Amino acid sequence: MFKPRVINVCSHKLNYTTLTRMENVLLWLLSASALGSICCLPVRQYHFIYDPKNWTEAQSYCRQRYTDLVTVDSLNMVTMLNGMADVSRMGSTADAWIGLYFDVVSWRWSLSDEGFYGADGSYRLWSAGEPNSAWYTVDCTHMYDNGYWNDAPCQWVYGFICANTSGQAATFFYISTLMNWTDAQSYCRLHYTDLASIRSLQENEQIRTMRPAGLTVWIGLYKDTWKWSNGNLFLFSYWASGQPQGGMENCTVADFSLSGHWEDWPCGLEKASVCYHDAEPFTRLTVKLKLVGNSVLDLNDPAALEDLLKELQLKVRLQADIRLIWRKRPDGKIFYTEKQN
């Protein structure tokens, strides 16, 4: 099956009289896809499923038919879903499952290489009384000036410590740029191995002394509690007042009678759900078109260009899902005439 694609057609050394060579041109055009391509970002689509399902069934359905249960990560997303929801089809509760669920309260290092830690993966150096945030929040860890650790909202901004690792060896780097924890994690993974994991008092002291005195820095420890079904880190929240309640209520709905605010409910209840689908990206190709013949017709005339493009488009659609557009040269023209030797 052909993937959808957009082709920019630009001229190359053109002499032109008629369209009698059209079939040869089209064969060449379709075979030119190997010249190169630029993949565009997929378009994300959202689907409300009004047939009641429990959370696990809804997750399986979304993964089979689409991509996954929806991840709601911004107010813009909340507003969009509110506009799409048909409350009259959701029953008396007017809510729908989203992809957020509660797992367990556990602190984990950003670097997931178990071989790096050996028996030292459980080392902690919390300040007195820490960590002290609510069980249902997602928090990240920073190091105070004295070397002790504290849990804090991941959206706060600090400098941070990256690490390069090889086997069980680690080299640390202080980054002074202020970032939230997630951006710091991305930066470290791009330029080094990951945010710093600390396995001993010696490594902790090494990090404490390498950063400027008086500054707090992110390290790689974070609290893993609520999770999105697609694996995204839970940072944005939109809980209704008094939510989440905890206990056996480990799955999340968006309540569209409350402007899409979230509530936790037992996962076995049957409700509507919201899926998302990342459509297959299309491919943009640029190819050079050469026609041969003698002509007095001006192919830079807009009417001639339109007629030619229509004929090309009609032919290629019989063979693939392709949309053609002309691409102008730097001088503003589409075609130019080849000079004879």
UniProtKB/TrEMBL annotation:
Every C-type lectin domain range: 46-163, 167-276
One Pfam family hit: Lectin_C
Keywords: Disulfide bond
InterPro entries, A to Z: C-type_lectin-like, C-type_lectin-like/link_sf, C-type_lectin_CS, CTDL_fold
Name of protein: C-type lectin domain-containing protein
